[in-house]
Records
---
Amino acid sequence: MPVNTKLARKVWNLYLRSRDAGHVEYVHKADKCENFFAGDQWRQEDLVKLRETRRPALTINKILSTVANVMGEQILNRSEITFRPKAGGSNEVADALAKVFKHISNTTQLDWKRSDLFADGIITSRGYLDVRMSFDESLQGDVVITPINPKNVLPDPDAEDADPNTWGQVITTKWLTADDIEILYSKKDAEILRGRGTSTFADSTDSIDGTRDRFGELVNTRTARFFGEHDETERNIRIIELQQRRLDKSRYFVDLATGETRPVPLSWSEDKIATAKKALGYEIITKIAPRIRWTVIADDIVLHDDWSPYESFTIIPYFPYFRRGNTIGLVQNLLSPQELLNKVSSQELHVVNSTANSGWKVKAGGLLNMSVDELEQRGAETGLVLELNELDAIDRITPNQVPQGLDRISFKAEDHIKSISGVSDSLQGQDRADVAAKAIQQKRQAGTTGFAKVFDSLTRTDFWLARRLLELVQTFYTEPRTFMITNSKGGAQDEEVKVNQFSPEGVIVNDLTLGEYEVVISSVPQRETLEDSQFDQALALRQLDVDIDDSVLIGASRLQNKTEILQDLEQKNNSEEAQRIAQLDLEQKAADVEKTKADAALALAKAGASTSQSSLSDAKAQAEGAGDDTRGNGSAALEAEVKSNLAIDKQRADEQFQREKLQLEREKLDLAKRAQAARDGKDSTAARFANARASRSKTERKEKSTA
């Protein structure tokens, strides 16, 4: 585009306002936090002074290990994104959207980029992802997700909320070569910039590029010129990219029933708009609403200026703690305790060195075998021999004692780091050996509560990201597409998902462009951790005699060839031998049930016989009592009749008990024979099955050897 000094100056002034409204201070803070995390924790002027006085400068980097524990907690927990239909949506399309999101996540390595975003946030207090469409590899367009250096992103200085949809503008800046501009924008603009030696605007090489986050070191000559006409390989042209909300007339879909509106995508053709209008029963209205204006400048050259094809900013932020525009990370509050630990540890070492090598007092001319300078260099050597003129010509200086409590300050500094960060010994796996495992687990769970806000902010960023991807998919994924979804579950095949396809009836199946959907986020452990947990739980249930199938255990394991094992197991279960064994198992179980019933009936019969015997005894006692009464009355005939009846009843009960006992014994013996026959048949079938399998394996090995 031609030179447009007026528009370029307007963008430059917006950049200066954002830079001077707190971004420079943030860059300095972020740079210091990055240095402390990397172990560069001493100022250069302090190191020079310490070297001059021959004092040690120790670096005990506790920040790295502390922050690494928090990063590990994030890696072991991931977010699962699903969608729920709202107005005009369907469950089928919602499932298709979830699978498309999974495809985008896999192709863009979102899990790793999300971890980089989290690391930027907890170290520098800000992290950003850039989400936009790319047409480099496919003319249909693909979503690309790129982590961006937070020092190069200038959010709206007037924003009060962390949600980027509430911002009025966002600026990103970077350095390019003239060749980069020729490839990305225009050859004509690149030639104009290549021939310049100074900038149109003052303070063009500002302090934001003072810290270079690249593999190479910062080139000092950059501050002497604005454009590198003498060095084509140096990235020394500042590019400022402004995305700003402005009012403009736009067309909207409107649902007459609910009154909800949705902007008509700029990339849609009139035929597509008419199809959506007819399918959903929407009307189209025109109203003045905010739109995003996208402007890119380099000096006073406007490289791009047009309405953005997107409804939202391409920037997705992550702030661990956000308080009214103030972003807070985890590292910045650990800087002072870390400096205290380094200084106290260095001072301790200096005191110990001073105690061992305290110095000498030498009388003039008292040394014979060396000079005073040599004594200064070699005075701390082990086994040093000094030749003196007089016995008292040289004497060692009595060293100062180590101050009491100096060693305790370093322990206090470490405790400060633990208490401020919330990373205790339990979270680091450094509990004492005498602490119970259950107590360690409880302390770990309580310790992770301190990170709840940090991870909740990451979940909020996941929501913004999913909302952004939903917008891009519904706007740009309008053509028929086929996605291959890789399934990580054992035994499950990769799934092919087709969207925006016409059915034989002429209906579009899985039309992603129609309907409204809301984002649902759930936190799940990392896949490896989740699989280990599932396997341990399934194994514990099996040990508790719960009928867990073998396929469940194999599927929950992390065996590399578990898919082949499951297929082999399924073939074995469907074979005739396996079915015969299963039938014999059922017969054996039925026989065991019948045996149990017979044992219960026998026990019941014995109990009945005991009850009959007890009744006979009671009757006999009554009869004897009655006999006494009859004798008292003089009636011996009644006593004889009662005794005769009791004897007959007892004989009948004994005979009935013996018959039932004999019958139960016969049934029990018969059931035992049937169970033994079933076991013999099962063992025989299993043996035949094993022999056949061994023979088949032997044949396969022989064929492979021959081949």
---
Amino acid sequence: MLDKQEYFINRELSWLKFNLRVLQEARNEDNPLLERLRFIAITSSNLDEFFMIRVAGLKQQLESGINREDAAGMTVEEQVRQITDATREQVKKQYNYLKNILQELEKQDIQIAKVEQLTEKSLDWLEKYFHNIIFPVITPLAVDSSHPFPFLASRSLNLAVSLKRSKGEIKTVVIQVPGVLPRLVEIQGGNKRKQFVFLEDIIKAYCFVLFHGYTIQDITLFRITRNADLTIDEDEAGDLLAEVEKSLRLRKRGQAVRLEINKSANRRLQQFISKGLKIGKQDIYEINGPIDVSCYMKFADIPGFDHLRYKQFSSAWPADLVDHDDLFAAISAKDILVHHPYESFDPVVEFIRQAAADPNVLAIKQTLYRVGGDSPIVRALAQAAENGKQVTVLVELKARFDEENNILWAKQLEEAGCHVIYGLVGLKTHAKIALVVRREYGLIKRYVHMGTGNYNGVTSKIYTDLGLFSANDQVGADASAFFNVLSGYSDPPVWNKIVVAPIGLRQKIYELIDREVGFAVSGRPARIIAKINSLVDKEMALKLCEASKQGVRIDLIVRGICTLRPGIAGVSENITVRSIVGRFLEHSRIFYFANGGDGRIFLSSADWMSRNLNERVELMFPVDAPEHIRRIRNNLDLFLQDTQKAYIMKSDGSYRRSDKRAKRLNCQEALLEMARLAAQPAAVSLQQRLRPSYRRSE
């Protein structure tokens, strides 16, 4: 019997352990100082989203009277309680690490100063800054019988101020810290070191000028986090675009789920704030330091301190394209594999740009999930439509926290003449695919790009992803059929190469796992290596345990959440789980099956989560070229032998660092070097020089 609660880990607690692994990078002295500060900011931003979505969802369940157990046997109430305890402990560590980093930065002449630490000359400048820049923007909001507690937007910073006249009663006002101004203000005053002061500290120092006739009794900073999960009834929405825009307006007004407040705040002010926000004591987090340290993300890019950041690198041009200016000719010759950020994302952008300008291109079809800010791909698609090509773009409006961007691009693309569709009712379209239809020698030829990550030039520099260009006829036919399913009423066909969720992907993975079981039972090589962001789906975890029991060796490289416990005798003893946390966010989804000695590789947009397998449009596609299979297989071994950035999960669900006493191997550094050398025509035997040795046991 494999379906036992003790074989599983709670999803939310597993995510918190992932965030803790990210936080540990802020403590790791091998990382440059400003990069350590950036990891502090990343964990803060991660926690915000966790509370806005996951914790908010659990609280909604409790309010609806739902308190069922999860796969690990934890009720909703138990989950909320343990999340609270784990978060408090994690935040405590976060601020301890931050304190140490800021002390080290002072030695490098970067100081986050208190107002009282400034020189007279700096104070003169600061006072002028307050009166000229800050004072015109801020507005005190009284709270009394005729002025109800103001609505405060999610994640906004606010100051609560207690005021008193002589022999009068205490009054309270709220001042919102303006988000339109820099959070960290650089002080001018001739000091040799770089000095910065938090915007809220400046307001606290000078806001007495707002309250003539009153004395400030106390002042404290606080921040509210609200439920940000959108609820959209697509069946009832006549216009999905309008429905998403309406839901976005409601997001900022969601129910409060967390209050962060200065630890030094007096009890009267804390009670005043919590009562006004209708938030319970269990959801109040007292912060011993600056609230909302996600601001350090931008601060870590402070000019003039490159020596405190990772050494800059330029993504290599893919080796298969070094001697090619014509992308279509290169792709026509053979499939081309690209690995970002080690290899440049520019060929993906150029693929759409060349298609937009090429008079032989008749049509472009593409899915867009998260394209980011000023997207060159969106501009190229718009240009293609203006050039008279048939352009169809599926824009996923429900991509969480990117809805506003996607609405903007959808409108711009429509104005340019593109046919914009919003996917299938009830399903998010998470697949990453672009199709170019080209006329060549009187015939039609199709060129396809498929990937594991978004068409986003910004995140492609910090997320690891794989993409495949192909002019294979079967892949092209599949791509055309895929877009017909999305845009019309076509039933899914029998696919040649690709596998699509929610119909077929789970079944295909099960089939591949079963094949490995068959090989193991017959004594042939049987092994699975899966690199994913999350493993949450219970049925998939059980399937892996069944394979483990039959002798299949399974190595899981799971960056984030993993609810399966490895190493349990008779259940998962043949399963290992590790997480790589480093300079780049590991985002690629790769599946290797030994296949009796004839190894197969698949890439996918989908993680092994129920939402990806059951509720999203996802793609999985094979890598057929032997040289690409060897390359990806080698990369997987790099991940498995990393001794610098890997964390190994133990059977109790905790993680330990990989053995740093072993030969030093940072898989991300190795891949950077391999890509750089591969792009040089004179590069020889670099794969052998950097490739880890492994036994072909499978």
---
Amino acid sequence: MKVKCDIRNLDCANCAAKVENHLRKQPGVRSATIDFAALTLHIDADDLEAVQKEIQKVEPDVVISVRGDKKREDNENEPAGFNGQIITIAVAAVLFFVQLIFEKQLHDTPWSIAEYVVTFTAYLLSGWNVLAGAFRTLRKGRMFDEKVLMTIATVGAIAIHALSEAVGVMIFYKIGEFLQDLAVSRSRRSIRSLLEIRPDYANLKAENGLERVDPATVKPGDIIVVKAGEKIPLDGEILEGSSQINTAALTGESVPVSCTVGDTVMAGSINANGLLTIRVTKTFSESSISKILDLVENATAKKAKTEQFITRFAQWYTPGVVVLALAVAVLPPLFLDGQTFSTWVYRALVLLVISCPCALMVSIPLGYFGGIGGASRRGILVKGSNFLDVLASVKSVVFDKTGTLTEGVFLVQEVVQKNGYEASDILRFAAIAEAHSNHPIALSIVAAAKQNGSVGIGDVLDHQEIPGQGVIVQTASHRICVGNDALMHRENIEHNSCEAEGTVVFVAVDGAFAGYIRIGDTIKSDAQEAIENLRMEGVHTVVMLTGDNESSAKTVANTLGISDYRGGLLPEGKVKHFESICEENRHKGGIAFVGDGINDAPVLARADVGIAMGALGSDAAIETADVVLMTDHPSKVAEAICIGKRTRAIVWQNIVFALTVKAVFLTFGAFGLAGMWEAVFADMGTALIAVLNASRALKS
């Protein structure tokens, strides 16, 4: 079964990688991914008890628990005992300075007892968890662990009577570890605050008044009341009242939206003023907010290639440095005149301290996690770290037209009469043919016919839909053809309006051309800005594909400055044209498709990254797309690409910085130009700086 588990007592990214690799090798475990930044285990396994036992073989203190429906407390899964750590570090630091200041006096006591008492007390206070962790690792027969390396290095320093350095290194390491935990903890809390939009309760209308209940217990059809200032707990339709709704937590849009009777509202929005009575339309698990929370919490389970590479790299990197340290300790004294083992052993110990890959293991997942969190704050849901990388590489964007670049709200703008038919008759016949369709154009025709009072002339005896062309219906007295120019030619109906401008629906009755209906669709206010911003982001190819006729496609494309477009495409035609676009542009970078997520599902699935526009609440969109934009603003596409680039830049800054510092200090250490102090900075200092840099991704 697939479950999501919280992890406790996992305080090392390297340890997380070891646990993850160990679990993946176990029978009965189909997949296992640990998100150290979120302290979450995504696992598909037969027996969770067996999984817990296997985890404790690697990390005995680590405990997992299946994620419940209720939100976690803020202090859960965070490094515990920060206050205790501060006190321990302070006491150890005082003893360390006593040892430094009174080193000669302490050393001159019988057998240097005072010196060793002060030194070992400070050493054990600051390094007890390191020593205990190293012991557990060695007991399992493993050598290449951060705590083992630190233990070998500091014990070796004590053995060559570098007491001050041994204690100082352990204290510095403890301080670095503490600051790193604190930075990661704060980043986690910042990201977790995104999930605090989950409603805590619903005011259910019952016979004896309002009853405060868990939103998960409310069923579709139930009536709830939302007071001013409260979160809307479930998706629904307003029955009574009007208000301003703040959807910023869902869409990133700060401007409140007016709503009144008949409007739909989304769970997680805030009722700014007024009292609303709402009929629930979806269960909590199917609501907008539930889908958002699930997407955000599960996103980092899909690791980017960079994360996967670093995990594999660490498995070879640390053992490689240990072998190098061993060579540094042994070979120069054996083969070079005048060299002593004590000098080269010390240098080898310095290399061991430097070698820890924690800066990479912690900061890279945290960077991606922050990027996903930052995108969510902007109303952009990215389903995985891997898609952030793809967004960063996008150089070609293909748009659907209707509902993506245009509003998708069609209105009848003109009825052109032919062969003596009245405009009301043309509308009436078209409405009969389109009555059973949910297509926006069909709905606009039916709505116009109702408004005109031209509705219904009898039952439809036969209904035939011609894909990509239109419909043919047979009533008791008429045969009605409603569709595009291709349908008129198919039925051999003479007409003289093949090239009518815009979206046009032709109507023929009993083989005679009755006229046509011109339908208008408005271009979105930010569509022009969206195209310009994409070009500023380095996107060199922008294409529009649509099922609308060529004339309508040309009008929109010319208005937006899109030179490459195709109209009159069926879903399979879109896929075919998209394939050819991929072939032409594959070598230039990633290719994104932006659509409504329902009719465009095949192309969304085929693209390097599929982006669903304004599809919140659409199961097809959320399931098929890799990125879901919670508003229908096409300008969010360029914003998503920008966030992907920024996140990738931060991740690579950390990789280059960490590896450069490690390489420099490894070289210095091998030639005796860096001591223990510099080594600890190269380890914990680099990790801390990388974590702080990674946290910038949250502010995308």
---
Amino acid sequence: MTRGMTPADLFRIQWVSDTRLAPDGRMVAFTVTRLDEEADDYCSAIWVVPADGSAPAKRFTSGGGKDSAPRWSPDGTRLAFLSDRDGGKAQVYVIDVAGGEARKLSAIPEGAGAPVWSPDSMRLVSVIRTGGEEQGSAQNSHKPKTPPARLITTLKYRYNGEGFTYDRRRHLFVIDAASGATRQLTQGDWDDTQPAWSPDSRRLAFVSTRHPARDYDRAADIFVVDAEGGEPVQVTPGGGACALPAWSPDGRNIAYLGYADAEDAPHNSRLWLVPAAGGPPRYLTAHLDRDLAITETAAPIWQTDGSAIVVGVQDRGSVGVIQVQVADGTVLPLVHGKRSVTSYSVANATVAFTAAQPHRPAEVYVCTALGEQQVTALNADWCATVELPEPEHFIVHSDGGEIDAWVMRPAGFAPGQRYPTLVNIHGGPFVQYGWTFFDEFQVQAGAGYAVLFCNPRGSSGREDTFARAIIGCPGEPDSADVLAMLDEALQRYDFLDPGRVGLIGGSYGGYLAGWIVGHTDRFVAAVPERGLYNRYSKDGTSDIWSGYTYLRVHQWQNPELYWRYSPIAYVQNMRTPLLILHSEEDLRCPIEQAEQLFTALKQMRREVRFVRFPGENHELSRGGKPSHRVQRFGYILDWFAEKLSAPAG
């Protein structure tokens, strides 16, 4: 007999990611990560599987550390990857495909980034954050007991998950594949990232912010530099949000993702083509009003004949893979359906990808002209022991038109019973819920709750106008959509108990949860976490330093507007019992946001509890210490069990 998912199941799941197809299309390398309960940490290894599924997947690297970012050499003889197996920061290792021991290639004090092979298999390039105290100079070899003061001269001086970065910049380093000799290729007071080799291995395209106003805007451009050194040349016109360059097979053009005006966010990232020598970019996906940025590493991939480009695409809760014809922008779906692709790779007209479904964690799939097959089943045994409900999709009609929404029945569902219900709100807001495995929802369903979620206005996966509908009024249109979803669901599904409905949201979802409980008392209890509650005080204290994107005015220009769209402005109306969760090292939504909300509610004698997670940042629920992730689930389930009279999981 199966059971519902519990928080402890986080330790039983194999988290599959980062598929990389060998140049001949015969093998697929990928990363498998698991949560180590004893070490209270994450372990990962490189695995391989035949692309035709003729043999089961097998582990390719050994050890108890973190091996990740597998990258095949273009000649197919070696596999490079990152590892911290020596106990320090991650370095580049290389292992022969035929087997044997991995060879440490880099020895960079700051640690290496994911390697990128040159097409001739002679060199690799890595992005490394260099400078500052971590540079390891003789002058800094003996650290004082008391850290020195920091002189800050830039707005962008810290980043969630990394801490203070004010005196360090990311640059390109070229590594010799035979000797490991490393040299810095780019330098300067800016970040150089996302390198891509030209087909002849002589040049590198990369993304950089080499413009005078870089400290005040979000613009980034594509540059090209000789691999032996020299002054980089900007090839995009400036002012845009450019990312993930990819050279055409003939070396004449560079494809990239982005949009024309970086300051006019949010916008769907589109596919562009620019001459490698510079010139006006050509917009290839003018008729596809969807976001093509599915991850920060999912770059466009050219077909070998240069006729088409493969990219990912978000569409109303799903994430697929499409092929765009260079000549006319015609789109051909390659991978689609009710699932979410999380990585993809292409070789010889074969697409290898990882994809997750709501009731199945990600596995590796391979798609050819003959069809598609799943080639790994690393979570099959676990799935056989756990009941993982599948969501039902339904459409909500609101002022914003059609809203995509989903309902999940609780594990052990019995017709004729009514169940407590949890309404979940995603962060972003320019992201989407949908057809993917989300441990949050499965744990909630496993604890006996029906689960409701939707993509309100402001979400990705739809038209630009949909994403931009909350500009100037964040919290109003999207909260209306969330409440419309709840109304529609209560009318449609008689197993939902209207008297036992809870609300939960994180990051922007925490903001929206706070906004909603400040405007209605219809929820029995709520859990806002890592949220934004005071827009005025968040500006200047967050690594996203400006609220301009959604209010289109700076805080000092219109403080009343910032206050109007702050949930804490309505704190006197908040009578819903709240459990506030926040991480103490959150630099995205600093913990002072939660402290303000908790203190105000406590002073008004309202029912509120505050849980602080030391040593964690904004990514607690996704990448925090395993013990903290389990504790977080415990606090949430205990809270709703108490308030909604449901058994805790």
